[in-house]
Write a structure and sequence with these properties.
The chain is an alpha/beta fold. It contains 12 helices and 10 strands. The longest helix has 26 residues. The N and C termini lie far apart (about 40 Å). The model has no long low-confidence stretch (mean pLDDT about 95).
Length: about 300
Amino acid sequence: MIAQKYTHKPIKGIKYKYMLPEGVSLVLEGGGTRGFYTAGVFEAFMDEGIMFPYIIGVSAGAANAISYISGQPMRNRQVVENYVADPRYVSKRNLIFHRSMFNMDFIFRTIPQKHIAIDWEMFDSCDTRFLTGAMDCETGKTVWFEKDEVGSGFEAVIASCSVPVISPMVRYKGLTLLDGGVTSPIPIDRSIADGNTFHVIVLTRTAGYRKSEFRYKKLLKFIYGKYPCLVEAVLRRHEVYNRQLELCEELEKEGKAIIIRPQEPLQVERTGSDTKKLLALYDEGHREGAKSLGILKESYGSNR
């Protein structure tokens, strides 16, 4: 059997030293390439060898969590350094050739299979529950996929990252799916419903942000006229987002959550591809993630 060759030397996944107690969750917002802030937060957790028993994320939050669960330091940073500025990653040109601004095949197949490997053995062996959410276009509700449903095909994560209007629908397990960030943009509700009592919440917007209504209603109804529940979900997204954000902030006031989010004014939008700006955002996430570790250690220490 011929060994797989990669452009970059494969990064061996680390075995985590500390698993936080049951009931502590990691809740991840999406945000396109803003999600590399979250990847920087993961670097801080990997620095200390800390893993969560429960991780839930949508869109870019779920996608970047894979390298964290597989324990591969700097893998996501290598993606930023070498591939996000490539027009195959994100560009208007992709809309013409792939019907999506984000070229999912390049992101989830070409990069992991030819350039920067994912350590699937470590991913599978990591003893954490990982949930990825996508929107069922027929019902306008969130469908949740467990860790063992992610796999090297990435269908569940691709569905979660597929933004309406700028991405095609994904067919998976008999369902028609799109961006999980529409129906569960900050999936704190599901984390609570699953019995977690303390939440580390990673956001990709600065404090004070509130989401506005979707502006292109006629276009939305024209494209998705056969999916009225999808249309309604997109039009209500700002209400859901703002409600979930307010719940997160209330939990933080009550001492039941830590919110980690960018402190500097954002220089990157959902489809931003400027390497320098993305690396700065990544490094900010690393710093803010390191600050949060003090609170976690004080509260929970290391139980393993």
